[in-house]
Amino acid sequence: MLRSSAPCLLAAALATVLAVPAPALAYWQWRDANGHMVYSDVPLSTAAARVLRAPGRPAGDFQPVQSAQPADAAGAAPAPAKASARPAAPTPEEAFQKRREASLKAAAEEARRETEAAERAARCAQLRNYATGLQQGMRAAVAGPDGSLQHLNSEQRQAELLRTSANLEKHCN
């Protein structure tokens, strides 16, 4: 009975190993200043001696590569390596904050666009209703110079309808 279950166990173990995607294994692991274990997809920018696991390297203490510059003939220490022109990689917290700020900014922009679209739709609906009323002969009035209402005659109604139609074409199509 053991011989018949061995291939099944082997197949199950192989399926488990193959089910883990390679990117899931690409993470950094280190201990922070308080001794807590930290896992991240972004490398630690300071104190590389505390890194326990790095992508593409076996698990265990991670030691940064030392420069292999020989001492000169006089026995002086090797010259320090020049600082690279690249800025230091952001810490995981900085990377998270940057992604969070970008997400919040995008959400605020989307909300602003939605609000503008809703306001525009409401204004267009009002213009369409007004134009329909003018076409159907609805009694309309405009404020005069002294603030009193002056009812539109047929010529004024036609001019108001043309102006409303122009606004509809310009802003609502």
Automatic annotation (TrEMBL):
Q: Which portions of the chain have biased composition (kind: Basic and acidic residues)?
A: 95-114
Q: Where is the signal peptide?
A: 1-26
Q: Keywords for this entry?
A: Signal
Annotated region Disordered: the residues are 58-114
Q: Does the keyword Secreted apply?
A: no
Feature: compositional bias, Low complexity: 68-92
The transmembrane residues are none
Spell out the protein name for this chain: DUF4124 domain-containing protein
Q: Which organism is it from?
A: Cupriavidus neocaledonicus
